[in-house]
Sequence to fold (1142 residues):
Amino acid sequence: MDKKITTQSIIAFARNNLIILGIFVLAIITTFVEPNFLTVENLQNIMRQFGPLIMLSLGMTFIIMGGFIDLSVGGIISLVAVVTVSLIDSIGQVAALIVGIVIGLICGLLNSFLIIKGGAFKQSEALFLTYGMSVVFTAVALIYTGAAPVFLTYSKTDYSIFTAIGEGFVGPVSVSFIIFFVCLLILYIIESKTHIGRSICLTGGNMTAARLAGIPTEKTIVFIYAVSGIMAAIGAVVLASRVTIASPIMGKGYETQAILAVVVGGTALLGGKGSVLRTVIGTLLIIMMSNCLNLLGVTTYIQYMLRGAILILAIWLDNRKQYSEGN
Amino acid sequence: MNTKITEPIKNIFSAQKAPIAMLLIFITMLFFKTPFYTSYNLIDLVNSNSTLLIVAMGFTVVLVAGGVDLSVGGVMTVSGIIAIKLINSGVSIPVAVLVSILFGAAIGAINGYLTVYQNTEPFIITLGMGVLLTGVAQELTTARPISGENPAFQNLANYKLFGVVPALVLVMIVTVIVVVWLLRSTSFGRNCYAIGGDYEVAKYSGINVLSTKTLTFVISGMTAAIAGVMLSSWVNSGNSTYGDQTALYIASAVVVGGTSFAGGIGGAFKSLLGVMFIGVLSNAFNMLQIDSYIQQMLLGLFIVGIIWLDCYARKVKTETV
Amino acid sequence: MDKSHSDPILEIKEVSKAFPGVKALDRVSLEVFRGTIHGIVGENGAGKSTLMKILSGVYQKDSGEIFFDGNKIEDITPVQSMKMGLSIIYQELNLVNTMTVGENVFLGRFSEMGGRKEVHAKARVLLDSIGCKIDTEKEVSELSVSDKQMIEIAKALSFDSKLIIMDEPSSSLTADEMLELIKIIYDLKNKGISIIYISHKLDEIFDFCDVVTVMRDGHVIATRNIDVISRNEMISMMVGRTIENEYPPRPNYVGETVLEVENINTKLLKNVHFNLKKGEILGLVGLVGSGRTETVRAIFGADKVKNKSIQIDGKLVSINNPIDAIKHGIALVPEDRKIQGLLLQFSVDKNISLASLGELTHYGFINEKEERDISERQIKALNVKTPSGKTRIQLLSGGNQQKAILGRWLELKPKILVLDEPTKGIDVGAKYEIYLLMKKIVEDGGSIILISSELPEVLNMSNRVITICNGRITGEFDPLLASADEIMAKAFEF
Fold:
């Protein structure tokens, strides 16, 4: 993580964080137009959104910081969700959850294996490989369930642990928020204080130089994809827990949202710089933007459009920032 | 030392493989009692792949010049919707078609500008554009398919020349011929190959790399728009779910045919073979009643395999990191 | 030919060109006459390629005048240069590998020439005129270097070139292919075309050049007719110079053998073997492309080389990647610091601590205080001029960047430090600091392998010098006993 604390010009800050400011402006406008925005209820509503997207985005952060990309997370979500839910009846909740996480891990390892063996160290190559894997994972999910969604049959077993993940509360705080917070803490510590965390930035900054200086770049690649897989699995569990149905295509579309969250938060797509903290802000902003737009009566479809537009805008601005900093 | 590995890998990407593989499929299907060899099926094969082929043509032009356009699915969808909506509100068919195509060209111009002049990564920009357009499509249709209200519109794609060949196929053939001609016999086309093959050399030879590369995106946008209009006409409806997986599907298909992501390699005809190959393979799987999800998995494995081999072949050429 | 031989096709008058930190050309003047084969020789960095790039429009001169065919030329682009009749055939060859022969000859001029058929027909004519039988429909990637050169010559002819510059054309040719090339060169000369022939192979220069210009350190030392200069004179002129840099007294702490390298074979390297003694500075001298960097990368594990044998302190070690090398006490400061050494967006601190991260990691966590200490220590010891450790390293001068990279490796107290062009692009003051540093390192028991294109640097700093040419070790010298000429001659021993 390369946080620079400059007290220089606010204009420079504004330029660098245009999108963040834009969304804050949106929030301000919303409070005027729709006073319900600042109610506790609405804010809790926002908090409730801290589910699969935030988990994915945290995992995606490491990937992008390392200079790569992972389009397979949507497929991983689908696969993990259906397998986990379908196994609860037979092997119990805890075991099923563990299996789910392991599946996510395996998917991530598969991705990294392909990339390393294929020498696919360019972001665009990783893009297509992980996309292909997404198709594979989704297809496996479809085959596994025969394309039918998997339900929880309430009559029999005890699902209290499982449903607690998505719906439960410990005091005023939701369980999913606690899970998110713990993950954030762990990942932040990894990112800022550990060797492997530092290696991620270094690999993303200049893989050639890092390797020549003894940084274990291949181990780093394995690590980031493994984390991405695990985080996708956690996200899958939270999602499935909330909707209590696991559908083999439920992960669709999450990956672009996750990338958007990371980029909006300020982590450069190029790699080498960034932080999970920034991604949290990015995700928050996207959720808040959604919330504002909903309150203002903007249709979901236009919101979808805006996501694409902001992604393009974010990349463009990020690119110009890199240019002006003399890259 | 490496030729033992690189030669067969190189051969995978040479044009010979796709037609040979297709031939193998045709031969294999002789042994199974399926409707594969009915005229109905074979005609349907051509018809159903026509829209993809049209898109693949423009996609190929971009790829040859060293870029990539992942927004083609979105362009296709939105263009079709624009056409139908305009026609439903009384605009004449030719005008509606023109507007749609101009829309595709405009998107292509934006993609080109951001990629070439602003020097950003094409894959992520066009990916974002694709997302944006999907949203546009959903908004325009409120996520429900729109039926065409002008029966004449259906004729655009469905009219059967000589009672047999649908206009859609004809448009596809014309597009293929135009792009083949463009890439093979025009300065523009040859310059695309130069730019994709070696950007610096092309630049030093006086080729206007910026405008040429941008134009490839415009062409891609236009073919996607044409495909979208044709598709809407074929089914007489505008639907925001079309074009979802298009870009990546086509990307893998053209790589199989022999057009590489590296740029400068392949061409319109090779891409056509690639798309047809996957279409025939898919069809054969259907005929053999292979589970559609297994098909999807195989497709995914196929995409991964092809692109992985493409990378690996290039990695083996350069031994160092 | 309506103009006589005494009319120069090219006149270069007092041309200068400087890059940040380096004066590449200093008031260079020379004339090339019509229908002559004009050789240019000089060591690495003499300025030959800079001069050629100015002629071909890739660089713009800072001052001076250039006349081509009687016309003054200013601010030209590469295409304009070609259209004017001045073509250059680079060593790396300016062809698009994925396209056909015919198309490469007329790259960018497809419709000008009349389309596919015409392009191939015209290319056929051009190739035939130089006796080349290659099929114009063949893809360039399938051709040998010799064939590719033919295409470049055909390309030059297609522009009606009056002057063709050939930059190191023979480096990848067999003897037979070389004969072919010479025949073509004579052919071109008979047609009245002038050739500028740049080569390290002095035999060739003597074989078929009419005139030769010797360059050194951005100056033209002399231009002579080939029959009035000897090989020794030529080498002397290439090498001799006034010493601008200062060097500390040569260290001498040489002890037992610390590194023994054998059996390094790659596409370029042929059975490279040598040893390094403790406390020694071993200079590795050779031309660009001779295999110096490849050799040290093989030792460092940066490239995969099978069956190599590396012994450290008498014990055989296995080095398959940089991590192994570092573990065994080898450090490598790479040639191109911008691409292979620096992490430009990161701070000076993070760049310095880079190689030490392993040491700083306890139970997976990096000790940040120790990290800051390392950085402070090195910044102070090496006198790295930076506003703070947190400054982005991109903002530092070249010399300070290089010192930071050195600090990165010195922190590990490596047994064997490999320096690949350590003072390239660095000002005189910083250079001297680095020399002092090198002395201290061997004083403290370390050993250094020094690769440098600056002969005086190598000669003044090394205890021993080995020469490498075309992948082969060609000689071993004591710089106190051997002359610069003798050593350089070995570097030219193809």
Observations:
- DSSP finds 19 helices and 22 strands in chain C.
- Chain C has a mean pLDDT of 88.
